[in-house]
Amino acid sequence: MTTPPERLQPLEITQQEHRERRARLSALLQARGLDAICVFGPTRVAYLSGFHFAATERPIALVITAQETSAALLPRLEELHFQQQSPEITDLELYAEYPGGGEGRHPMTVLRGLLARLGLLGKRLAADVDGYEHRWGYRGPPLSEALGQPVLADVALVDDLRMIKSAAEIELMRVACEWGDHAHRIMQDAIHIGADELLVSHGASLQATREMLQALGERYVPKSREGLPANAMFIRGANTAFPHGLHRQGSVQAGDVLVTGAYGTVGGYESELERTMHVGDPTPDFERYFAAMMAAQQKGFDALRPGRTCAEVETEVRAFIRDDLGLDQLVRHHTGHAFGMEGHEHPFLDLDDHTVIQPGMVFSIEPGLYVPGLAGFRHSDTLLVTETGSQLLSLYPRELAALCLPG
User: Which residues does the UniProt record annotate as the domain Peptidase M24 (predicted)?
Assistant: First the structure.
C-alpha cells in the first residue's frame, strides 16, 4: 500500500484541532447560558483534549468553561501521561488514588475542590453524565450530589460536536478503511476447509497489523493499550443468523455461510467492513437471500444524502425490504449508525432518529436479513456524506463471485 506524502504527518489529530474543539464547546456553553461543563466519558475527554487513557475505577474529568479555560481532574499516576498527550492543558487537580489512597478524600470531593477553586460552585454547570461511570468497582456519588446543586446532564453537548467530521478525521478514517480492507483480504485468503475461525481471525489480524506498522512507520501513533491496529474476524454456519453471533467450536466446512468483520484503527478513529461469504458453490436459497441483501444495501447507499433525516433513510430501506422484497420478517436491526472514535456513535439510521444528515457525517450502511436455521446475510460499508450524496470509504468487493471460497 502507498502512503501519499500529502497525508497527515503524523496520523493523529493535532493539538490545534483539539483547541478548536474546546473553543466550539465553550461557545455552545455561552449560547446555552451555562458557565462550565464537567466531561467524564473517556472518549469525550480524548476528543476534547487528545488524552487517550485506560479507563479504570479512577475518575478522570475535564472541566471546560464558557470563557475557554480548561482544567483536568486526574489520579496522580496519570499526571505525566496527561502532560505528554495534552500539553496545552496545564491546570491539573491531582488525587492520590481511588478511593482515597490514604488521604481520606474521595475523587469526587477533590473535583468539588477544583470547581470551587475555579469559582464555579453555585454557577450554572453541565456535565456529559452526572458523575463518573460505575466501572471496575468504582463507587461514588453523582456530581450533583457531590456539589449539592443541580447539574444539567446532557451527552449531546459534546456528542453533537462529534457528528460532523473534520478533514483530518476523515483522512484518518480513510486510512483505517484501507487497512481494514487489507486485513479482510488476508483473512479471506487464509480461510479453507478445516480452518479454525478463531485462529484464522487472530492470525490475519496480526499479519495485517505487522504490514500496517511497517508501511506507516513513525506516522502511525497508537492510541490504545488494547487491541490491534488492524483486525479481521468471522463467524460461520447457522450461527450467522444471530446478528451478533459468537465464535463456536469446530472448523470451516463446505457449504458454510460466513459473516465477516474487519476494521482498522488510526489516530483513534475506526473503519467498518462486513461481508457475507460462502464456502463452495452457493445454494439457490443462499443466492436469493444474498441478492436481496445486496439490493437492500444499495437502497441504503442511494438513500443516504444530506438534507434528509436518518429516519427517512431507514423508512426508505425498510419499505423496500417489506414491499419489494417481501422479507420484512427477517429484519433484526436498523440500517446503520454513525461512527468515528467509537464503533457506534450518534446518530442512527433508525425510524425514531430524526437527526438531519449533513456533509461530513460518516455512517455504516448494513441492512441485514436473518434466516433462522440457515444464515445471516449482511454487508457493512463505511460511507462519508458529501455535498450531494455519499462516498464509499471501504472499497472491498461486494459481489458474490468475489466472496465465494473454494469448497
Answer: 171-387
- Cell 436469493 sits on residue: 288
What per-residue confidence (pLDDT) applies to 4?
Answer: 40
Strand extents, DSSP E, 66-224: 70-75, 92-95, 125-127, 152-153
Say if pTM beats, i.e. exceeds, 0.90: yes
Q: How do residues 289-302 score in pLDDT, each as one tens digit?
A: 999 999 999 999 99
What is the CATH topology of the domain spanning 15-161?
Answer: Creatine Amidinohydrolase; Chain A, domain 1 (3.40.350)
Distances in whole angstroms, Cα of residue 291 to Cα of each of 184, 238, 321, 390: 21, 18, 12, 22
Cα within 13 Å of Cα(106), Cβ side: 13
Cell numbers at 198, concatenated: 478463531
CATH code of the region 163-405: 3.90.230.10
| Other Cβ atoms closer than 10 A to 248 | 12
Task: Please give the grid coordinates belonging to residue 26.
Answer: 465553550
User: Which DSSP string do the residues of 351-380 spell out, in sequence order?
Assistant: TT--PBP-TT-EEEE---EEETTTEEE--B
H-helix or E-strand spanning residue 166: none
Residues of the chain with CATH 3.90.230.10: 163-405
Question: pLDDT (tens digit, 9 = 90+) per residue, 10-53?
Answer: 999 999 999 999 999 999 999 999 999 999 999 999 999 999 99
Whole-angstrom distance, CA of residue 323 vs CA of residue 373? 24
